[in-house]
Design brief:
779 residues, Spore Coat Polysaccharide Biosynthesis Protein SpsA, Chain A, Jelly Rolls, 8-stranded mixed β-sheet
């Protein structure tokens, strides 16, 4: 075969090469290159996210305008958009003749790239244009221009209108477009590009199209309902547009859709995987390991007690237990609840010498937002590295919470805290159209820890860590007078050894300065402080994170907390069972339920096991004595149906002190499981009991109880105080078996059958006072 015989085959392969690697309109036969441009005046969280995605997919990119003054005040604003055009024009001068270079321009603060160069170029080539702009369903900034859009766009199924937040094209054509006419820095770039597109001659000259069906660009505004996450076989996420069955790779959170972009950003650009978990959790992570205490960051902890809160002692105890050098921590405390004055005073008394400083805001600071803003200002004044805000509803079980949050190195990050067994947490996954709570697609998976990670969310509350730079950067570049104004509010604080009465207060400004994120919304002063603060952060482009890469703690429920009793925590078994059990259930109780645990039987079918703590015993006794209306021990008892008690005791019923329903819940949660273990075959859920009472025995009142049967299927009898210390004598004798239990243990209960078999009596108390808690279960 001669060489000429090969020519048709060579030509064929050469043609395929041109089609695959070149653009027939330009005559290029070389592989296309892609250069990404963006404009950012400062490295915001959004810019850093874009930067991460570009680096992740090995893109070549240039950032324009970084650290340069911006005429619009904010590169995200429309005012000053012309500056973006002028910056791009200047940057493209050196690329204007490169026939094989594709330019991709994207906004910087609200865009994520989710593909490599080759995939983006392949998609661009399928669109058959030299320049492609992203598209959306809104015609702006001049809605009247909608009628001027080409007819084919009206009939085309897809997004009709141009959006300048993302476009892609050959370098020569893009340069010609941005150089086609002068534009002032203060002009609107969106309007500039729209008018070019609507000019049929220019649109044809530069072969401009819109990405109507989100082949490359997905503008989320107005299209949130069209998109969903999809995970490939490797577990990585992409954005799927269900309306057009496309998977766009440049995702733009334009307009009000930034919260949705943040949610998608938790997954795309290889941030989180169904197989590998949270890949982005390691981004920028730091370590405090090995640092000497003096070298650790300084922290100001803001403690806020806005309302009466159950189990407040455990709240303070968990703060003290945080494993961080106390000499690096200052405290600022705000208490708005008189009920907790004694708790705060006790905490300050025992910890003033422990921490670097302890400040207490006086009662004259009567507004929640005021106190919280003062704490932010105090952080700036003392030059703290971190500000850790914690409300009294937050309970940090993890002693390393503070260290963990610092090491995760986000500007604002909250530990995930959830009300045990509930769907209530300290973050919102999404926002409704009016700015309130809306459940995100992954909210339940996150709060149940089915997904672990660091999540970009629109709202946090109750407990979070703020990097001090967030507060200080707002003061950068201020004049001396502006700086003085920013610091005009001196926090009226207590230094070590001071009491609130000794501290004078300075005037507190009514208008919050905009140099910091604020807990007060000037447009809506009635807005809750946490909502105002999160909105303030969002408006400044500061990302808000919640982390559940570890278990940190939980929230208590303060909403129905009743403070009319002596020991109000005693009544919280319904609303805060986790904390209630921690305080009141015996630490050895859980062992009783283990299958291999043998429960003591001091007498036949009499079971003896630990159930409540000494604190429970003490509080129940004190609650009854505080109530004080003990029965007289006679047969006449108006509390009973019929008014007659055959075997009377000196007692108080739980329903007299508002504890009846809580006690029935206690029987179900903590007594019934043991009953089912020892009295095999008997099930009754929930257990019923109409006689629940605290009995008091003492020699001068009623020292013993005659033999009797209980009107119950089974009875529990809890020893509330200590034999040999609080009283002498006493105990219980089971007559049929001639068996007595006298060495009673505080917090332990006797459980025995009632009615027929276990005829018993209360033995004589010879001195002191004996208290027991009795329930006749299932009469």
């Amino acid at each position: 075969m001669k060489l000429n015989d090969y020519c048709p085959l060579v030509i064929c392969f050469f043609s395929l090469f041109l089609i695959a690697n070149g653009d027939q309109s330009t005559g290029s036969i070389f592989p296309q290159d892609l250069l990404v441009f963006t404009v950012a005046t400062k490295p915001t969280d959004g810019f850093l996210r874009l930067n991460r995605s570009l680096n992740l997919f090995d893109h070549r990119f240039e950032v324009l305008g970084l650290n340069e003054p911006w005429v619009g005040g904010d590169v995200a604003s429309t005012t000053g958009g012309g500056q973006k055009v002028n910056l791009l024009k200047k940057a493209l001068e050196k690329y204007s003749k490169e026939q094989n270079l594709i330019i991709l321009f994207v906004d910087s603060y609200d865009v994520i790239i989710n593909a490599k160069r080759e995939e983006i170029l392949d998609r661009f080539n399928t669109l058959g244009a030299k320049v492609v702009f992203s598209a959306e369903d809104f015609c702006w900034p001049d809605p009247s221009l909608a009628k001027d859009y080409p007819d084919k766009d009206r009939d085309n199924v897809g997004h009709r209108y141009l959006n300048s937040g993302g476009f892609i094209g050959w370098a020569p054509q893009v340069y010609e477009i941005v150089s086609s006419s002068a534009i002032k820095d203060t002009d609107d770039d969106q309007l500039f590009y729209t008018k070019i597109y609507l000019n049929n001659e220019l649109r044809t000259k530069w072969s401009i199209k819109l990405d109507h069906k989100a082949v490359i660009f997905q503008n989320l505004q107005g299209a949130v309902g069209d998109v969903q996450l999809r995970f490939n076989e490797d577990g990585w996420a992409s954005v799927h547009n269900a309306a057009f069955q496309t998977e766009p790779v440049v995702i733009h959170g334009n307009g009000l859709s930034k919260v949705v972009l943040n949610s998608l950003g938790n997954y795309i650009a290889k941030a989180w995987s169904t197989k590998h978990g949270c890949a982005s959790c390691q981004d920028n992570r730091i370590s405090l390991d090995g640092l000497k205490p003096d070298d650790l960051p300084s922290v100001l902890i803001g403690i806020f007690i806005i309302h009466p809160t159950p189990f407040i002692e455990s709240f303070f105890a968990r703060i003290v237990q945080l494993s961080y050098p106390k000499e690096k921590i200052s405290l600022i405390i705000y208490n708005k609840s008189a009920y907790h004055d004694k708790h705060v005073a006790d905490f300050v008394k025992h910890n003033t010498s422990v921490y670097r400083n302890v400040y207490v805001l006086p009662e004259s600071v009567d507004k929640d937002w005021q106190a919280r803003n003062l704490a932010l200002e105090e952080c700036v004044k003392i030059n703290c590295d971190y500000y850790f805000s914690i409300d009294s509803d937050a309970r940090l079980n993890n002693t390393k919470t503070l260290i963990s949050l610092i090491e995760q190195n986000r500007r604002i990050i909250a530990p995930l805290l959830v009300r045990p067994g509930k769907l209530w947490s300290n973050f919102w996954g999404a926002l409704s159209s009016d700015g309130f709570y809306s459940r995100s697609h992954d909210y339940i998976e996150i709060i149940k820890n089915e997904k672990r990670g660091i999540w970009n969310v629109p709202h946090i509350t109750d407990c979070y860590l703020i990097n001090g730079t967030v507060l200080k950067e707002g003061l950068a570049g201020l004049t001396e007078s502006e700086s003085d104004e920013a610091n005009m509010v001196d926090a009226p604080i207590n230094k070590k050894g001071d009491t609130p009465d000794e501290v004078g207060t300075k005037k507190i400004g009514e208008k919050v300065k905009s140099y910091y994120p604020s807990y007060r919304n000037d447009k809506d002063p009635s807005m809750d402080t946490d909502m105002a603060f999160s909105a303030s952060l969002r408006s400044q482009g500061i990302f808000i994170y919640v982390s559940n890469i570890e278990d940190y703690g939980h929230l208590v429920n303060s909403e129905p907390f009743e403070t009319s009793h002596l020991h109000n925590d005693l009544y919280e078994i319904y609303n805060n069972q986790y904390e209630w059990a921690e305080k009141y259930i015996h630490p050895n109780y859980s062992a009783v339920l283990k299958e291999d645990h043998i429960i003591e039987q001091p007498c036949p079918d009499v079971y003896w096991f630990p159930i409540v703590t000494p604190t429970f015993c003490k509080h129940l006794i004190e609650e009854m004595e505080n109530y004080g209306q003990w029965s007289d021990g006679s047969n006449y008892d108006p509390r009973l149906n019929g008014g007659y008690e055959s075997v009377p005791t000196v007692d108080i019923h739980t329903n007299q002190v508002g504890l009846e329903q809580q006690w029935l819940y206690f029987l179900r949660e903590y007594v019934r499981p043991v009953q089912e273990k020892v009295f095999i075959g008997y099930f009754h859920d929930p257990p019923k009991a109409t006689m629940n009472f605290i009995v008091r025995y003492k020699p001068t009142e009623q020292a013993f109880l005659k033999p009797h049967h209980d009107t119950s299927t089974y009875t529990i009898n809890i020893a509330l105080n200590r034999v040999g210390i609080d009283y002498e004598g006493g105990g219980c004798r089971f007559v049929r078996y001639n068996c007595s239990v006298v060495s009673l243990r505080q917090g332990w209960t006797l459980m025995h059958p009632g009615k027929l078999t276990h005829y018993h009596e209360g033995l004589t108390v010879t001195s002191g006072t004996r208290y027991i808690m009795v329930s006749f279960v299932d009469p």
